[in-house]
Fold:
Amino acid sequence: MSNGPLLFKDIDAPGLTGLDGYRRQGGYEALAATLGKKSPEECIEIVKASGLRGRGGAGFPTGLKWSFVPKNSPKPKYIVCNADESEPGTFKDRELMEKNPHLLIEGIVLAGYAIGSATGYIYLRGEFAHLRDTLDRAIAEARAAGLLGENILGSGFGYQIHTHLGAGAYICGEETALLSSLEGYRGQPRLKPPFPAVEGLYASPTVVNNVETLMNVPHILKNGAQWYRQWGTEKSAGTKIMSLSGPVKRPGNYEIPLGLPLRTLIESPEYGGGMRDGMKVKAIIPGGSSVPMMPASQIDTHLDYESLNAVGTFLGSGGVIVIDDQTCIVDALWNISRFYRHESCGKCTPCREGTYWMVEILERIEKGGGRETDIDVLLDVAGNVFGKSFCALGDAAAMPVQGAIKHFRAEFEHHVRNKSCLVNRRRHSVSEVTA
Structure:
């Protein structure tokens, strides 16, 4: 399996979860080369110049986000690591934290130094309880070695990191819902503006970055912006860890240079190795289940922000879900939509009601009771959710519906008119259900 050029380069090195093992791979060298030797402003400019964009899904420029934090605020400032990885099809942050926890700690301390923060939090998805122990052990090791706490490495800069376990709600991956949950309130999104950089955790300036984003920071500050730009494209710099799933021969996490063709990720022996059991690619969801799916005809699209946007979808969280030619798109979409209905927090009407409507219509179509008008009604409901909900969860629920009907409308129409499925695997089961 390819180890990747940067975050995955030493991911399987012996003892990497411990402080000694991490230091054998150059760990904490960025911290020593930065604290007291580069100014916070210089750190922000380096990260800006590197072109690093948030790896959690939105793709917002990281250095620019840091620069929004007011320098002269009398309030404490916070770094919050979003480790609430809940997007179906995405499982990279879990592996990064499991195997290299000290890299995350070093990234958080450096981000804190850049914005003038003294405290950071790692907000973990509830199902990641075992990772809390791993991270807490690494935090204790770093503190004992003078890499956390007061006067780190004699620089005069001090920093503390705390872990926090969420309750397992997908909405808490949204940054303002995460902050509400961290404060002890129900995990529901807040109105923006004000944005967290100005008024975030405890109404104080806060930067929320995800795990992969923060783990890039030590490498960038140690080696420089241009070094980081040797990978990727002009507008999509660096590497990205893609979680590849579906009926491929070698599913798993792969670190790729941004701009790699999607076909290479799926078919190359270095990555996915092609499809299993003679199956063919029918569709691909390139950025986690919340983004529009692509037909197989777009498999030569490059994996970067701009190329995917050009074909009507997104890089998102990097969860590449491959759908084979024996899978019913209606059934697959019904499954995805049930997830978003379950995870809607219920705060706003478009999302709360729209997700239920979409599931109800999809279930009717899938089970052979679809009406001639159902497909257009489904699109209408999705259109009344997209862009009209309080946070991005509504968009996440609507876009898979819009993408699936755009590219595979014939399958929906076949379901409605013939009360059966186009693909072999489903042909008999649908007739049995509706008999």
